[in-house]
């Protein structure tokens, strides 16, 4: 990437929009997987430049949003204990649990700290050997390798007061879960470029063939997204069910092999419950037996804690692409970023947060 402006050039954006308009001959529903892509689409109004035949569906690619309610409650439980330093990325602090959030724990005197890397939390463990330091390890494949490296480094150094509360999820099983749903309307996908920078895109090829659906690895800037849509529309119009790579400046078919190796060293594939969606088999990563002592769920004996989700929030339907934020009766009234009912209103990648920030005062089309 040379300059940001190179991918936000208005004339080039309109040229791609015109190219899409000339290519499309029938209606197509395309889902962008990543919440970062959703925010770019809404912020720059990219969907308003497309012909009416192209409908963009917002997908579940927001790791904060899909972290299960019971895991948030486990985080709150652990963070409330004396002697614990609980570390997290900032957008997790306002995600509501069943009764309160991590900000409430911090306000009540809990030692909850915002960090920018799991290695920051590991450094806190080195400097505070008398305290238990826990890092809330959330994310898709993009964050899984640095989180794995933190556990690897802790074990290598023999640091015993550090652990991870793990909520790592994977994209391909989520795509399969969406495509297996009887209500699904998706005909093409824009895959998340940063995930594929780690994992490559070989694992998407069997999905494209099995479900007869094109998948285009796509970046996050306006030109990236419109080019990804154009490539997806071209594949749909030609009836080609394959994987294409728009994000060639960052992604290869094989991905980042050293990052994949550290994942294999530290994690194992497990079922994972997604907030608002439910259990998706084989969709999560958890610490393997070798690294079990660094698993906060076991260290603090919260593995068996379960919580029922509220029925008022429709974030599950939004994450599956079945509803859009403005279709929720609580949107912008009973549910705001200051008083959220669900994680999609809190996260910087949540669809509800994007609509609240950029389209709250606009009449939805």
Determine the CATH topology of one domain: Rossmann fold
Largest beta sheet: what is the strand line-up? Answer: 4-3-5-6-11-10
Number of separate strands: 11
The portion of residues forming beta strands comes to: 15-25%
Overall radius of gyration? 21 Å
Q: What share of the residues lie within helices? A: 25-40%
Biggest sheet overview: 6 strands, mixed
Give the mean pLDDT. 92
> Helix segment count?
15
Task: Determine the N-to-C terminus distance.
Answer: 34 Å
- Please, what is the oligomeric state? single chain
User: Under the CATH scheme, which architecture of one domain would be assigned?
Assistant: 3-Layer(aba) Sandwich
Note down, in words, how this protein is organized.
The chain has helices at 10-23, 35-44, 63-66, 69-79, 102-107, 118-127, 141-157, 171-180, 193-199, 205-211, 222-238, 257-266, 296-299, 315-319, 351-358; strands spanning 28-34, 54-61, 84-88, 111-114, 132-139, 162-169, 188-192, 215-218, 243-245, 267-274, 278-287. With 365 residues, it is an alpha/beta fold. The protein has a 6-stranded mixed beta sheet with strand order 4-3-5-6-11-10, sandwiched between helices. The longest helix is centred in the middle third of the chain and has 17 residues, at 141-157. The mean pLDDT is 92.
């Amino acid at each position: 990437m040379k300059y940001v402006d190179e991918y936000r050039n208005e004339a080039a954006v309109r040229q791609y929009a015109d190219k899409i308009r000339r290519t499309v001959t029938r209606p197509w529903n395309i889902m962008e997987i990543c919440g970062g892509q959703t925010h770019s689409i809404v912020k720059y109004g990219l969907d308003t430049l497309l012909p009416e035949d192209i409908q963009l569906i917002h997908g579940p690619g927001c790791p904060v949003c899909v972290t299960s309610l019971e895991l948030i409650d486990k985080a709150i439980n652990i963070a409330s204990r004396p002697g614990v330093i609980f570390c997290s990325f900032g957008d997790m602090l306002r995600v509501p649990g069943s009764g309160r959030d991590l900000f409430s724990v911090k306000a009540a005197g809990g030692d909850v700290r915002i960090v920018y890397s799991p290695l920051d939390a590991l450094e806190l463990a080195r400097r505070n050997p008398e305290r238990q330091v826990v890092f809330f390890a959330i994310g898709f494949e993009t964050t899984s390798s640095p989180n794995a490296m933190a556990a690897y480094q802790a074990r290598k150094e023999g640091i015993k007061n550090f652990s991870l509360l793990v909520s790592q999820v994977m994209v391909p099983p989520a795509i399969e879960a969406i495509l297996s749903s009887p209500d699904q309307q998706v005909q093409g996908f824009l895959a998340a470029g940063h995930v594929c920078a780690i994992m490559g895109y070989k694992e998407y090829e069997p999905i494209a063939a099995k479900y007869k659906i094109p998948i285009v690895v796509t970046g996050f800037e306006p030109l990236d997204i419109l080019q990804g849509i154009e490539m997806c529309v071209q594949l749909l119009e030609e009836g080609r069910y394959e994987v294409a790579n728009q994000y060639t400046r960052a992604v290869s078919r094989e991905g980042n092999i050293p990052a994949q190796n550290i994942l294999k060293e530290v994690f194992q594939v497990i079922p994972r419950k997604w907030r608002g969606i439910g259990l998706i088999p084989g969709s999560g990563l958890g610490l393997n037996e070798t690294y079990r002592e660094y698993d906060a769920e076991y260290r603090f004996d919260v593995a068996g804690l379960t919580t029922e989700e509220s029925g008022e929030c429709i974030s599950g339907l939004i994450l599956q692409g079945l509803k859009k934020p403005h279709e929720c009766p609580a949107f912008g009234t009973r549910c705001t970023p200051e008083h959220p009912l669900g994680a999609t209103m809190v996260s910087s990648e949540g669809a509800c947060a994007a609509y609240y920030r950029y389209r709250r005062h606009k009449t939805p089309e």
